[in-house]
Amino acid sequence: MICLFKYKSFSLSRIIMQGFLNPLNIMIQRHLPNLNSLYLRQRKMMLKGFLMRFPEHLSNEKQIIQLQKRLTAMCHGQLYQQRMKKAFDKKVKPRVFREGDLVLKKVLSFVPDSRGKWTPNYEGPYVVKRAFSGGALMLTTMDGEDFTRPVNSDAVKRYFA
Question: ∠ CA 85-87-91 to the nearest 5 degrees?
Fold first, then answer.
């Protein structure tokens, strides 16, 4: 048998050919098939060890525990959201506009004005011609001229004369 292990200019094959390592060579040749089967057995043992290390019933229990923790966290989050909604809804007053109400419309143009910070924030008063259920309003001026587009009720506040 010729080995291909090399160490600089010295190779193991020269020693084997000269007969110095014949007993070692014979032992390697005898045990080489056993080492191969040992490797295969060791792989199977490693697989068994892995399965023993992480048994299926314990991993399922861990998954169930994790899912329970996630479920309780989700329930706490939903309860918190409901409490915050309830607290917010206590403070919010519904703004309902009817036909004939006087309102002021917020100035939403971004055109710079010469008056600077003293430009008015609202213009009007306008009359609500029609109120839609989604919060949109059709407005008219006091002279009776209609707006072409509806206005969102968030950009409008009631005018008290």
Answer: 110
